[in-house]
Design a protein that fits this description.
By secondary structure, the chain is mainly α. It has one domain (1-91). It is built from 3 helices and 2 strands, in the order ααββα. It has helices at residues 16-25, 28-44, 54-74; strands at 45-46, 50-51. A two-stranded antiparallel sheet has the order 1-2. Strand 1 and strand 2 form a beta hairpin. The two termini are 15 Å apart. The relative contact order is 0.19.
Amino acid sequence: MNDYSVDWPIWPKIDSDLESAVEEAVDDVLATRLRAWADDFDRHYHYEHGWDDPRVAAAHRAEGEALRDALAAVLPAPWRVELDYWETNGA
């Protein structure tokens, strides 16, 4: 989930075991993609007006879905990955 001025868009539900699992499972390539996705949100989403470009919004959502799938593929059971894509204005 994105949030304003956050560079790491993974929000474990108050579970230190999950935080450890994420740190172990996420390689540098996936971590770079996650940070770029969060940065893209910061640069193109305004809290009052939404996305500055519908094409950027669509690409951002698609990358969010791809990142969700990539995280789900590397995290061991029983962890489950959900994409909370609340910023749908203009998507």
